[in-house]
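lol forgot to send this yesterday, sorry. struct tokens for the thing we talked abt
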């Protein structure tokens, strides 16, 4: 059993001068399972926090240079290592800003790839097959590097492993249509060579993936003719010299007469593999798909169509698949479990259902904690929900089709009656999530066709389950905005994990446009606000740990109006009034807490009017003063935004509308306060920097083991 869940965009892809997509060089693990290092096929290395879809740091080589292998993170030191122009080695840390000023070493030979290990030195694989540990290479960067490969032999793929605390490097090469495999051991330095041959008739390996288990490496090769072969590589071969490595056929994809050119393979858990760029069946012939196959039963378990075309690039890390397509890099979580033959065959029968059905399991309605709810309804109430047949073993698609037929053409009240037994339970299973998606899509279709039909309570119940996503029902949130159902829009922002930046900005624009008087009769979740927020509620701002009296030169250079503030005051030294009502505050807080990517959000923020931007900035200023004071270290409320989120949104609005704000007379006072605040913070960090050395020296002092009740110590700082 395997399932592909709804994905999300991590970043965009750079385009070359010809307009074609460059893709990316590679993706490597970061400091933990929620961080990855993305190396663009140009000159950029970026560290992303996956759950936030947000870059944490980015470094770029100067114009004319190109990063030639994926950057990795040193497992022992936390430093990043990359190579540009094949021979120039760079090492840097998170706090480094200028890529040109980081450590640099020029090597004597061209590098093919750098591989990082969790508790060992990174391994450097040179293009001619030599392998060095990073520390040994840094000791003498210009040391001679031997040629292991023969002429015209080219490295196609490589991977590293750790066995008994000893590093291993496996890499494949190609020469004149023949394919070879090398296993490099260190300590002692031993190299094993294998001949894996070719498939003939134009068939050649185009994708590799390998795993290490029980002192044996399992290598799976995807050939251009659609065959997936398995090869077992022993860590302790008995014979010397070049050996022929036998292979067994795992899977035969329906490629027909055409050959695969841009495809990739990745090994997953429990006998599953992921393949991108190959058709799942001869009838479709569509190659822009990501598929999960069960290798034990040779069955398709899940598939996902990739918009814009796939580029044959696929990575797997911490339960997520990373694939490039169109103009983006998409992350798709997945799940694999041990499969039985019945479950595998059950999935085959469901491959013709809608794409939203990614789970291969057969639905067992007995697993849902139903009681005979429909039978217990009062006399005269319609009991269409009894068609679910709680004790039946009907498949998921059949049962859902029955329910969808029941809600077609009936009134809003009857829809609520039919769905009440189903929505009253919330089992933790992928099947329940799929059912919800089917119901939501069907209801949205009917709302679009019939303007008078709007089952608000059912839609709210669906959103509150936390099992839906924007990808599974894209019109859900937009329908709420069209109906001016701000409560439903708030629920979507709270529970949908993958709302696009364009939709987030549409919600922001709608929330800023609605009048506070129009929200009086609207039901809104107020967990994200406190009673102090609302029109007329004022707050005396206090400094966050530092309130210097700024010098004359620290004030604004020009006199801006209307600044009835002392020129020595900062952004938080003012008495503020919340510019919006309590319910609008709750809605805006959901926007501030939402996940986004800055590069995708900025273009849409420019659609806001100057008045909307000023109002939002004033509200952000009010929130910052509340959260940065000596008393209010965190805003009250279960869903209150953090100070980091507030400052990030201030920066985004200024980036998107700075020129407009400078020209708007009503924004001059706000900009003046922002200017003073930034100068105050710069002054604070400058003062902290002056005592940084002193604090470091204090930390190095060896404290006495035993100190009495009273002691005098003399500390000399140089």
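and heres what i got for the seq, position by position
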């Amino acid at each position: 059993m395997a399932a592909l869940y709804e994905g999300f965009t991590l970043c965009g892809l750079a385009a070359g001068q010809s307009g074609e997509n460059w893709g990316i060089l590679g993706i490597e693990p970061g400091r933990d399972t929620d961080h990855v290092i993305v190396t663009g096929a140009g000159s950029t290395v970026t560290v992303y926090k996956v759950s936030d879809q947000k870059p944490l740091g980015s470094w770029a080589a100067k114009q004319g240079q190109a990063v030639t292998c994926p950057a990795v993170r040193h497992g022992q030191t936390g430093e990043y290592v990359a190579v540009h122009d094949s021979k120039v080695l760079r090492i840097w840390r998170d706090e480094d800003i200028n890529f040109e000023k980081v450590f640099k070493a020029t090597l004597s030979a061209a590098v093919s790839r750098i591989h990082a290990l969790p508790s060992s030195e990174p391994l450097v694989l040179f293009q001619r097959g030599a392998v060095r540990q990073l520390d040994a290479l840094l000791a003498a960067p210009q040391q001679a590097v031997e040629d292991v490969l023969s002429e015209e032999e080219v490295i196609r793929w490589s991977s590293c492993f750790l066995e008994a605390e000893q590093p291993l490097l496996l890499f494949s090469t190609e020469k004149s249509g023949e394919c070879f495999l090398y296993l490099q051991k260190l300590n002692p330095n031993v190299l094993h060579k294998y001949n894996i041959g070719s498939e003939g008739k134009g068939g050649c390996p185009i994708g590799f993936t390998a795993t290490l288990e029980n002192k044996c490496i399992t290598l799976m090769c995807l050939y251009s003719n659609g065959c997936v072969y398995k090869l077992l590589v022993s860590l302790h071969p008995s014979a010397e010299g070049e050996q022929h490595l036998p292979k067994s056929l795992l899977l035969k994809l329906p490629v027909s007469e055409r050959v695969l050119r841009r495809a990739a393979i990745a090994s997953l858990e429990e006998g599953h593999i992921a393949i991108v760029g190959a058709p799942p069946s001869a009838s479709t012939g569509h190659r822009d798909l990501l598929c999960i196959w069960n290798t034990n039963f040779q069955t398709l378990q899940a598939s996902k169509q990739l918009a814009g075309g796939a580029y044959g690039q696929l990575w797997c890390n911490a339960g997520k698949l990373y694939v490039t397509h169109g103009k983006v890099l998409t992350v798709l979580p997945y799940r694999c479990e041990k499969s039985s033959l019945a479950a595998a065959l059950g999935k085959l029968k469901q491959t013709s259902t809608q794409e939203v059905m990614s789970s291969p399991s057969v639905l067992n309605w007995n697993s849902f904690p139903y009681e005979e709810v429909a039978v217990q309804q009062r006399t005269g109430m319609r009991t269409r929900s009894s068609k679910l047949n709680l004790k039946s073993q009907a498949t998921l698609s059949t049962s859902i089709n029955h329910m969808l037929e029941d809600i077609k053409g009936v009134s809003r009240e009857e829809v609520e009656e039919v769905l009440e037994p189903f929505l009253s339970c919330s089992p933790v299973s992928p099947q329940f999530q799929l059912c919800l998606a089917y119901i939501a899509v069907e209801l949205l279709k009917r709302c679009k066709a019939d303007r008078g039909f709007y089952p608000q309570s059912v839609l709210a119940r669906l959103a509150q389950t936390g099992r839906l996503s924007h990808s599974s029902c894209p019109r859900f949130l937009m329908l709420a905005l069209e109906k001016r159902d701000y409560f439903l829009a708030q629920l979507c922002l709270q529970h949908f994990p993958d709302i696009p930046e364009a939709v987030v900005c549409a919600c922001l624009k709608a929330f800023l446009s609605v009048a506070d008087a129009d929200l009086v009769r609207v039901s809104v979740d107020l967990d994200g606000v406190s009673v102090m927020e609302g029109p007329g509620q004022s707050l005396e701002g206090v400094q966050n740990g530092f309130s210097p009296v700024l010098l004359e030169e620290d004030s604004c250079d020009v006199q801006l109006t209307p600044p009835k503030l002392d020129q020595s005051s900062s952004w938080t030294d003012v008495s503020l009034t919340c510019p919006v009502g309590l319910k609008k505050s709750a809605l805006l807080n959901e926007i501030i807490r939402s996940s986004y990517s800055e590069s995708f959000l900025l273009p849409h923020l420019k659609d806001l009017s100057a008045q909307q931007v000023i109002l939002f900035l004033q509200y952000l200023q009010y929130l910052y003063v509340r959260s940065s004071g000596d008393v209010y270290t965190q805003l009250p409320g279960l869903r209150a935004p953090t100070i980091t989120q507030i400052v990030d949104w201030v920066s985004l609005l200024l980036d998107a509308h700075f020129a407009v704000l400078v020209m708007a007379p009503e924004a001059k006072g706000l900009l003046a306060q922002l200017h003073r605040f930034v100068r105050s913070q710069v002054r604070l960090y400058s003062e902290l920097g002056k005592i940084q050395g002193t604090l470091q020296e204090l930390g190095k002092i060896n404290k006495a083991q035993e100190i009495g009740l009273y002691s005098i110590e003399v500390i000399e700082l140089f």
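The longest strand covers residues 154-163. anyway ping me if u want another try
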